[in-house]
Amino acid sequence: MSTTPEGGGPAPGGPRTPDLAQPDDTLQAVGAVSLRLLAGAVSKRTMEQLQRTVQQSPSEFPWQVVTQAVLAEPVDAQKLVQQGLQAQRDWIVRGGRERPATPLGQRTKGFVARLVAQLIFGVIFAAVVVAALLLLKHKLDWFDIYRVLDWFRGLFGAAR
Predict the structure, then answer these.
(1) Which of 1, 2, 27, 106 is the most exposed place for a label (fewest CB within 10 A)?
(2) Is the pTM of this model over 0.85?
(3) 110 vs 96, which has greater pLDDT?
(4) What is the CA radius of gyration of the chain?
């Protein structure tokens, strides 16, 4: 006894396994899998199995296995549509694919690196200014390097 009616289509009421050799069926199957993934309608157990499968074949994505595994799970069509529409709305509001924030450790390392770089630059700048003032004092006897200090003190109102 065959589960497929004479027309070659799926048996009524039974799960439909797409013929992935046909481009239209492949497009529909991949779209259905994407909708289920976007809506979060794939069980945790299946996701863990799929993660292991994908990690075991890093050179090529086993999309047929993924498609068949996701479509083999029963799903409530009405609930799937509602979850899918909510996920689409969130996708649009977010502006596209979600980009996870950089980890706190990496941000901290970046902050410390910038702080150290600025400190090094500040020390080098101060050394260059002091060297330039000393060079001016050495080359020009009439130049008083402390005049700059007096001007700086006068600028902020401190008396000598």
Answers:
(1) 1
(2) no
(3) 110
(4) 34
